[in-house]
Amino acid sequence: MHVESSLVFVLAAVAVIVVVHRVAKVTGLPEAALLPLIGIGYSFLPGPNVGLDPEIILTFVLPPLLYSAALDSSLIAIRRNLRTVVSLSVVLVLLTALAIGFGFAWFVAGATLAAGIAVGAAVAPPDPVAALAVGRKVGLPPRLLTLIQGEGLLNDATALTILSVAIAAATGDGFSAPAALGLFLLDTAAGVAVGVAIALVVRLVSRKLGDDPMAANAVSLATPFCAYLLAEQVHGSGVLAVVVAGLIVGHHTPRTSSGASRLQTSAVWRLVDFLLEGLVFLLIGQQLPAVVRGLAQYETSTIVIAVAISVGVVLLLRPLWLVLTQLLPRSLHTRLGGEGPADERRLGGREVVALSWSGTRGVISLAAIFTLPLVTDSGEPFPDRDLLLFCTFVVVLVTLVGQGVTFAPLVRALGLRANESDQARLRNEARVASVEAALAALDDLQAEEHDDIQDHVIETVRVQLTTRVTRYQGRLDMLRDNVSPEIPVSAHYEAALHVRRVTLDAQREELLRWRDAGRLPDEGLRVLERELDHEERLLPDRKARR
């Protein structure tokens, strides 16, 4: 593809992503389901088609997406839910790969166990992008969002390790259970070590940079690639290194970076996610010609059986495993525990159903299966490679479109929704506590020796903080008066937010009139606009009520 053609293709892809994004916001349909369908439609049109290069996906696309997700994750919440996260991201991935592998060996004519485990490993790890997007939109409880996110962060390393072992067995290197376990442990240990090391370096560099948002953004964008490449160089799990680095950096960012750096870095990563995820989902649909090209050599019955095994295991094993882990004795189960806080209790029936239907597969599955070699060590074609590609594509399409479109209606039908009133109260209680800590610090300053100017400044700041804590306390009073779960935030609070937005818009319009009349230069306008933008950012989103 020529440079001009490549540029036209990229611009067209961005245009499609933007249009689909707007359509998704209006219709409520998930972008992750719409974009692959558009990609499939494009694949039938005349003109250039973009093939999926697994090296590009695994090296340039996967690390930033995983790192961004890890930055937004809660290390504390994942640690609190570690048993359930491990059961889904390690044990369930392994069981899925083995179940599909034995299914292929027993029921698919001519298929080998190693080839079956290879496709099983590729389709085993869910890609949580679609489920998280829908879950946040419909207000899924934070605990379930944490489990979906934690599972998606850790399962790729498990799947790719299993896939490498299966490929080694299928190409002639043979299979050894002890060697496979040793490889998995070595990859995991090296990946974790590299991730921790990179995170420590990033923390040190962030402290040195201080209030320099541009440099902080550059470091942030480079971090996932450094973690991935270094881990791969030492034969560790690059995926796990990226995730570990992101979790640690995200946990310590409030202490190591300035407010301006955090605001700008957050905006940059949102844009990166938006474009990369959109391009990835478009790319999935465009792989249809490649995956059906070699199916002519197979009997229709063979294709149907192989697809049925792949899709059936993916859809059925997940709910069975979730139910089983809730029924095992405490000493054996992987549930969250007995009585206690919300994050420590076992999963309820509705939560199991929602979590079962959140296992959408994505580009990682396709990138993994495209890494299968064309030939074995003996020079023979890799067994059933075209069939494995097709099975993976069908699993991805069924879960992305089928589960992606139906996940939101399912969550609404189950009545699973975060208690927004409780969350709003908690946030405002934290706001009050933080301002009270600031007032206590002012008392300490007041007790120290200082001049009249400093005394005047202290009193001025005290008045500002007192006004702020009064405002927060007023919000708390309104929220406490409205305890009905059907009305999570009081009408008075909503009205106050509306009035605040109206006043901010009026201030912007007045600044623009000053600029247009020549009374305020553009540079001054940008400074004042930035102040209003930061103030507006403190207000809750119209859909994410506080």
From TrEMBL:
A GO MF label: potassium:proton antiporter activity
InterPro entries cross-referenced by the UniProt entry: Cation/H_exchanger_CPA1 (IPR018422), Cation/H_exchanger_CPA1_bac (IPR004705), Cation/H_exchanger_TM (IPR006153)
Cellular compartment(s): Cell membrane
Membrane topology: Multi-pass membrane protein
Major localization class: membrane
Keyword flag Transmembrane: yes
Keyword field contains Ribonucleoprotein: no
Every Cation/H+ exchanger transmembrane domain range: 15-412
GO biological process, one term: regulation of intracellular pH
Transmembrane intervals: 56-78, 85-107, 177-202, 274-296, 302-324, 352-375, 387-411
Alphabetical UniProt keywords: Antiport, Cell membrane, Ion transport, Membrane, Sodium, Sodium transport, Transmembrane, Transmembrane helix, Transport
Recorded GO CC terms: plasma membrane
Entries under PANTHER family matching the protein: SODIUM/HYDROGEN EXCHANGER (PTHR10110), SODIUM_HYDROGEN EXCHANGER 7 (PTHR10110:SF86)
Function: Na(+)/H(+) antiporter that extrudes sodium in exchange for external protons.
Family: Belongs to the monovalent cation:proton antiporter 1 (CPA1) transporter (TC 2.A.36) family.
Protein name from the UniProt record: Na+/H+ antiporter
Taxonomy of the source species: Bacteria, Bacillati, Actinomycetota, Actinomycetes, Micromonosporales
